[in-house]
Specification:
Elements lengths: L1 E5 L4 H13 L3 E6 L9 E3 H6 L7 E4 L13 H21 L5 E5 L12 E2 L10 H15 L6 E7 L1 E3 L6 H10 L13 E5 H12 L6 E5 L4 E2 L1 H11 L11 H11 L8 H8 L3 E2 L2 H7 L8 H14 L1
Parallel strand pairs: 1-2, 1-4, 2-3, 4-5, 5-7, 6-12, 7-10, 8-9
Antiparallel strand pairs: 9-11
Helix pairs in contact: 1-6, 3-4, 5-7, 7-11, 8-9
Length: about 300
């Protein structure tokens, strides 16, 4: 079984490639913009789209332009990568008559930037950002061109984390592990996360043929609050958490300054750190016939944070 993976040099792609080789022993072909930057069997996008390369049993489309917290990307860049590239690859999959599965990694942000209650698959999409709208447009193209005889799965993960991951969690860990006071003590929130281990498990199940075509949210079973994360980081780092209850109005004022000056906090990052964003994973668990994901939200988070600690 030969599997094609785009975005194989990224966080999710590199973890998935290693997982598939270790757990299933399948051969993998990696697609990259510059094939000289990666070891192993690899082809360029130009080669894939301009030749008759066929025979992949499954296409995993993980490549995309990630959400930019600094707002430095032009809106058209998101649509060029997240929509146009997805469209071309899906068309290539349809031409490859030997291919049986197409798996597209979308995002919960293709549906909503903020939610009330649990986000489910039947939630009416209304993304605000260019990132979310470009992902949704790619989803719609795929769903408008579904083949009857093959499996096409759109996965909407929430915030993915794991060893080697960067981003807001790394920033939070850096602050707390160094004993820097956490100034957001007045914020009370809870949100869903997704361990890379749980995501790889789901994708293994897809390769095993245990899922029907459709759109599925992917998340850990439990939620975590930012204050819980602070406590976990402090425990792992052998630090006493220092929590400051800075007035929210002052925090928001600082975040607005961060919109124009290069300081760690801006309004978008503040919203990510303090928002409630709950994602239901009931549909995919029902489809896979499982009661729980392999590891709990706290177990997965501890694994990620311990990797930050060792680094």
């Amino acid at each position: 079984m030969s599997i094609l993976i785009t975005g194989s040099t990224g966080f999710v792609g590199s973890n998935l490639a290693s997982y598939i080789k270790k757990e299933l022993g399948h051969s993998i072909v990696k697609v990259t913009r510059n094939q000289d930057q990666i070891d192993g069997e690899v082809i360029s996008y130009d080669h894939l789209f301009s030749s008759n390369v066929i025979g992949f049993s499954s296409y995993f489309h993980l490549a995309g332009k990630a959400h930019d917290l600094k707002n430095t990307f032009d809106e058209s860049e998101y649509f060029k990568v997240n929509y146009e590239l997805t469209k071309r690859l899906f068309d290539r999959f349809l031409e490859d008559k030997m291919a049986q599965r197409f798996i597209f990694i979308s995002s919960v942000k293709a549906v909503a930037d903020s939610v009330e209650g649990d986000l489910r698959e039947d939630y009416s999409p209304n993304p605000v950002t260019a990132y979310g709208r470009s992902k949704l447009k790619a989803e719609q193209y795929i769903q408008d061109n579904l083949p009857d005889d093959r499996t096409v799965v759109i996965l909407r993960p929430c915030m993915i984390h794991g060893p080697g991951n960067k981003g807001n969690l790394n920033l939070l860990h850096s602050m707390i592990s160094k004993g820097v006071p956490w100034p957001l003590g007045l914020y009370d929130n809870t949100r869903s996360f997704l361990s890379i281990d749980n995501l790889c498990y789901v994708m293994k199940k897809i390769l095993d043929g245990e899922i029907q075509s459709g759109v599925y949210n992917v998340a850990d079973d439990e939620t975590l609050s930012t204050m819980e994360l602070v406590s976990i980081i402090a425990e792992i780092s052998n630090k006493r958490p220092r929590i400051w209850n800075v007035p929210k109005s002052l925090i928001r004022m600082v975040a607005k300054v961060g919109n124009v000056l290069p300081i760690p906090l801006n309004e978008e990052r503040l919203d990510k750190l303090t928002e409630n964003y709950l994602v239901s994973n009931k549909k995919i668990k029902n489809e896979l016939g499982i009661n729980r994901m392999p590891i709990s939200a706290k177990e997965g988070m501890i694994k990620t944070l311990k990797d930050f600690e060792s680094s």
